[in-house]
Amino acid sequence: MNLNNYCQSNQIAAPTYSHSHSGTLDSGTWTSTVTVNGSSYTGDEKATKKLADDSAAEKALKALQG
């Protein structure tokens, strides 16, 4: 189950993401932070924004599911 589905199923407001980038555009890394249910979760550095979002969402989902 992904984070958005979890939030919908549990009547939690949709998660919001923020991003940071370091390095050059072609070889840098992205870090994403997702805020859901009043808590923020930061994922691991990744090569793309999508992968960084996925990493943050995975951490948030694990925390929310206990």
Automatic annotation (TrEMBL):
For this protein, the record's SUPFAM superfamilies field holds: dsRNA-binding domain-like
A single Pfam family, by name? dsrm
The record's listing under Gene3D superfamilies reads: 3.30.160.20
Does the keyword RNA-binding feature in the UniProt annotation? yes
Keyword list (alphabetical) reads: RNA-binding
Is Zinc given among the entry's keywords?
Answer: no
Q: Which GO terms describe its molecular function?
A: RNA binding
**Boundaries of every DRBM domain copy:** 1-66
Looking up InterPro entries in the UniProt record yields: dsRBD_dom
Name recorded for this polypeptide = DRBM domain-containing protein
